[in-house]
Amino acid sequence: MNAGWPVELHEGDVTLRPIRARDQRDWQEVSRRNRDWLRRWEATVPPSPAGRPGGPRPTYRQMVRYLRGEGSAGRMLPFVVLHKGRLAGQLTVGGITWGSMCSANVGYWIDEAVAGLGIMPTAVALSVDHCFRVLGLHRIEVCIRPENMPSRRVVEKLGFRSEGMRPRYLHIDGDWRDHLVYVLTAEEVPEGMLERWRTIRSGREAGN
Fold it and tell me: Distance between CA 76 and CA 135 in Å, rounded?
């Protein structure tokens, strides 16, 4: 079993915990309500070289089985995001690589009904601190389509720096899409990402 997994992470009203088979009803309800909100940013499978479709989407249970297996193997941290105990989104730390790289990438989505409340920056901060301080990773990447301003605001609030564009990087919403690359290394947040986010939030509240 991965020494840093399974784990639950908490900050105020926000919790990250492993995705579960019994989340199916809540996960599908949130996904259904947000179908139009999320469609432009969802990963898709390109056709095969012979022109055949990429195959059917996995069922919820197949997805959970795969994610939990990857978590147990230490290659991924598949979280759901809870706000006040209710499922509000998903955050996955994927592509965990050890050796001389010690890096991972983070992807996320949030229920439109609670977007803009600081939930996802808090969730990202929790996951980054866990990756740096518990797992011992060195570098975190977040790759975002240039048009996805809500997701870009999350990492920009937290102080991720841009390393530029990766042209036609991922197959999203039916085609190969350009992505901006945002990066953070452990040395850039010696105080911890969550502590940085607390300071940012308290400064904003004081200015209101």
Answer: 11
* Domain 9-207 sits in CATH 3.40.630.30: yes
If one counts every other C-beta atom within 10 angstroms of the C-beta of residue 46, the result is 12
* Type of residue at 43: A
Spans of all domains in the chain:
9-207
d(CA 205, CA 34): 29
How buried is 6 (Cβ within 10 angstroms: 0-12 exposed, 13-18 middle, 19+ buried)? middle
Distance CA 109, CA 163 (A): 22
54 band by pLDDT with thresholds 50, 70 and 90: low
pLDDT at 206: 67
Residue given tokens 């009803």 in the structure block: 25
